[in-house]
TrEMBL record:
GO BP term, pick one: pilus assembly
InterPro entries attached to this UniProt entry: Fimb_usher, Fimbrial_membr_usher_CS, FimD_plug_dom, PapC-like_C, PapC-like_C_sf, PapC_N, PapC_N_sf
Domain PapC N-terminal, residue spans: 3-79
Keywords linked to the UniProt accession: Cell outer membrane, Fimbrium biogenesis, Membrane, Signal, Transmembrane, Transmembrane beta strand, Transport
Membrane-protein topology: Multi-pass membrane protein
A GO molecular-function annotation: fimbrial usher porin activity
Region annotation Disordered: where it falls in the sequence: 745-781
Recorded family membership: Belongs to the fimbrial export usher family.
GO CC list: cell outer membrane
Record NCBIfam families: PRK15284.1
The protein, known as: Fimbrial outer membrane usher protein PapC
Pfam families, alphabetized: PapC_C, PapC_N, Usher
SUPFAM superfamilies noted in UniProt: FimD N-terminal domain-like (SSF141729)
Length: 781
């Protein structure tokens, strides 16, 4: 009954009979039960009023699956090597981050790590001497655990965490929290995920971190990039580091959007937390704190929200109101007051400080214009207003007071003019401070898709950008053009202007298949020639990115990035690719058959030698589907069940088994001892009770999973009636009508003495009369 998705109160009120195995009929008004014998199905019709909300890809909590116990180890590794032509300096860098953990019931236990190794060797041509330096580090950056609380639509977290708040600025702490989880809501009620954009002048490593902890690391080819697969639970300020192959580094901060904290009428969204702040080195700072926030849908379109955060010397409280303006979007306004009692001399002075911060946020989808203002906001903070992070810094008297926010403007905007083939993307932020110069970051992209004569789907894109960090600004413009060369390849032109260097490149992009693509560029940079190459492959065991660069007279470099993981359970395990460290995954069992292609999201994965595969990056609380690619099954395999579904809780290891039969295929004629045939519709099953064939009215059957010497049972009238034994060895031609005697179980010839049965043409076998039918069929005619 759980599969029906009945409301909890309705399901509990139902009465059962026959040891709780049969439901008493007539208990729900409007519920209808109908048999469909032609489809061997029982049809149930249940009025919608009795059912929990569901949609095409979302299931109610009664269908959520916590998965099975198991161990995981996910990783992201990046390696780069570079040789400077001038000076002969060689440098090698290996960095990585990942997550290890265990699942036990509904609990998820995790530990995050990050590591970096750098070796540089400098050659001095003047005195034939060289110097080398090496640095390395390994950090366990976070220990934590969590579990879902489906009845509360909430998540319980323990251990080290980052305060992801809709009101207050975040910080690292160790403690516990309970918060409503938007992922448990239907898709149309969920929030948004962060969007990080930038421009790489060459193949580059992009690292996104928060408060010293690496959240995401990948390699990108030259050109503009947008990273949109960061978890939607991430909020606050993200630090972006773009490390080019030539050694240049861009760094800037991205403030993730804070959507209006609105709630539907009669519902409450909340977060409560307690613990002690700590730095990224696991050192606690300050005293014990507690806090909470909530949003209440008080009336149609109106929400009240607020919260408080306090320890012995720091208190902060906020209150706000939000309004759903229907076709005009959503608007929210809030004010936060902070009170700090500094009991010692510090960079902030000594004594009590009180200040306020005011914030306005707006969000709107313009569906009729195919555009979206993902977020637009303004915040003003008085000089004495302090966040918890600033208060913690104030306790360290040796730290100077810098970065005291004054004003902040943020906007992210998308618009698509489908008829004109034009799209616009804007990400803009402007911050002013009380004690240092202002900072402006933006990324503006204009794209146009058009046809020219017989050439279709051409595109041209212009990107203007500016990223500022620590009073250093990187700004410029990027021009790109794409011309289709075939169904799977394009010719490109890329030009980069600004930031002290101009470059232009002509490239060729080729998508080999769903899993592999590459790009080759040739061009000039500062009057020097350059050649770049980039290859990406989504393999079953890992995602692999390769890059190589040569810039005349400057440097040559190469890099590799690997993203993958390992999952191990009592049902088996597999190596696999993954992007979401420690995330939800689905273990696939193909009945021990190797090289079975399984598709779900992205390129297919193939089962290993044990018949297992893992589909990673599964969406939490979504109805995910995995299916076998029947067109690419191994020659000796056939799937009798090729589609499975799972709705998994966050971090779960799901387990689903496909019904796959291994062996050759054959046409056979089954004969009983008296020369008759098994009845029409009789089923042939192997030792694992898998159906491998159905008999027609003349004894003909198409068998799958045929193996030499294998025993199979023939079923009719609800039970096994007789047994067949496949010959050993199998004949070369299995489609000429193999004649197989069907004996009572236990009387069929054993493997060692089974007579050789040659293929018999079906028409010849029909000439044998019942009285002539032998007890066993000899090898000769």
């Amino acid at each position: 009954m759980a599969a029906l998705g009945l409301k909890e109160g309705i399901a509990k009120s139902l009465q059962w009979t026959h040891n709780d195995e049969c439901l008493k009929p007539g208990q729900l008004d409007g519920m209808e039960v109908e048999n469909d014998l032609s489809q061997s199905a029982l049809l149930l019709t249940v009025p919608q009023a009795y059912l929990e909300y569901t949609s095409s890809d979302w299931d109610p909590p009664s269908r959520w699956d916590d998965g099975i116990p198991g161990l995981i180890a996910d990783y992201s590794l990046n390696a780069q090597t570079r040789h400077q032509e001038q000076g002969g300096e060689d440098s090698h860098d290996i960095s990585g981050n990942g997550t290890v953990g265990a699942n036990l019931g509904a609990w998820r236990f995790r530990a995050d790590w990050q590591s970096d190794y750098q070796h540089t060797r400098s050659n001095d041509d003047d005195d034939d001497s060289s110097n080398s330096t090496t640095s390395k580090n390994w950090d366990w950056s976070r220990y934590y655990a969590w579990r879902a609380l489906p009845s509360l639509k909430a998540k319980l977290s323990l251990g080290e965490d980052y305060l992801n708040s809709d009101i207050f600025d975040g910080f690292n702490y160790i403690g516990s929290s309970v918060s409503t989880d938007d992922q448990m809501l239907p898709p149309n009620l969920r929030g948004y995920a962060p969007d990080v954009s930038g421009v790489a002048h060459s193949s580059a490593k992009v690292t996104i971190s928060q408060m010293g902890r690496v959240l995401y690391e990948t390699q990108v080819p030259a050109g503009p990039f947008r990273i949109q697969d960061i978890g939607d639970s991430v909020s606050g300020t993200l630090h972006v580091r773009v490390e080019e192959q030539n050694g240049q580094v861009q760094e800037y901060d991205v403030t993730t959007a804070s959507m209006p904290f609105l709630t539907r009428q009669g519902q409450v969204r909340y977060k409560v937390m307690m613990g002690r702040p700590e730095d990224w080195n696991h050192k606690t700072e300050g005293g014990f704190f507690s806090g909470g926030e909530a949003s209440w849908g008080v009336a149609d379109g109106w929400s009240l929200y607020g919260g408080a955060l306090a320890d012995k010397h720091y208190q902060s409280a906020a209150m706000g109101v939000g309004r759903d303006l229907a076709q005009f979007g959503a608007l929210a306004f809030d004010v936060t007051h902070s009170h700090v009692n500094l009991d010692h001399d510090s960079a902030y002075g000594k004594g009590k400080l009180d200040g306020n911060s005011f914030r306005v946020s707006y969000a709107k989808d313009f569906d009729e214009l195919n555009s979206r203002v993902t977020f637009a906001g303004y915040r003003f903070s008085e000089k004495n207003f302090m966040t918890m992070s600033e208060y913690l810094d104030a306790n360290q008297s040796d730290m100077a007071r810098t970065g005291n926010d004054k004003e902040m403007y943020t906007i992210t905007y998308n618009q698509n003019f489908a008829a004109a083939g034009v799209s616009i993307y804007l990400n803009y932020s402007h911050r002013t401070y009380w004690d240092r110069p202002e900072q402006t970051n933006y990324n503006l992209m204009f794209s146009h898709y058009f046809n020219m004569g017989s050439i279709r789907n051409m595109s041209i894109s212009v990107t203007g950008y500016r990223y500022e960090y620590d009073d250093n600004a990187d700004k410029g413009m990027y021009l790109s053009m794409s011309i289709p060369w075939s169904d799977s390849s394009t010719v490109t032109y890329n030009g980069s202007y600004g930031s002290g260097s101009d470059s232009s490149q002509v490239g060729y992009f080729k998508r080999v298949d769903d899993a592999t693509h590459y790009q080759v560029n040739v061009g000039t940079s500062e009057q020097h020639g350059s050649v770049d190459g980039y290859l990406s492959h989504d393999g079953s065991l890992a995602k692999v990115d390769l890059s190589a660069n040569y810039h005349e007279g400057e440097y040559r470099s190469a890099g590799i990035a690997l993203q993958g993981g390992a999952t191990l359970t009592a049902h088996g395990g597999a190596l696999h690719r993954t992007q979401n460290m420690g995330g939800t995954r689905l273990l696939i069992d193909a009945d021990g058959i190797a090289n079975v292609p399984v598709e779900s999201n992205g390129a297919p994965v193939y089962t290993n030698m044990f018949g297992k595969a893992v589909v990673a990056d599964i969406n939490n609380y979504y109805r995910n589907q995995a299916y076998i690619d029947l067109n690419n099954l191994p020659e000796d395999a056939e799937a009798t069940q090729s589609v499975v579904q799972a709705t998994l809780t966050e971090g779960a290891i799901g387990y689903r088994k496909f019904k796959v039969i291994s062996g050759q295929k054959a046409m056979a004629v089954l004969r009983l001892r008296d020369g008759s045939y098994p009845p029409f519709g009789a089923e042939v099953k192997n030792d694992e009770q898998q159906q491998v064939g159905i008999v027609d009215d003349e004894g003909n059957v198409y068998l799958a999973g045929v193996n030499a010497g294998e025993h199979m049972m023939v079923f009719w009238e609800g039970s096994a009636q007789c047994e067949i034994v496949l010959p050993k060895p199998l004949p070369a031609d299995l489609f000429s009508g193999l004649l197989l005697p069907c004996e009572q179980k236990g009387t069929a010839a054993p493997d060692s003495s089974a007579p050789e049965i040659k293929p018999v043409i079906q028409d010849q076998t029909r000439q044998v009369t019942p009285t002539e039918a032998p007890t066993s069929i000899s090898a000769t005619q």
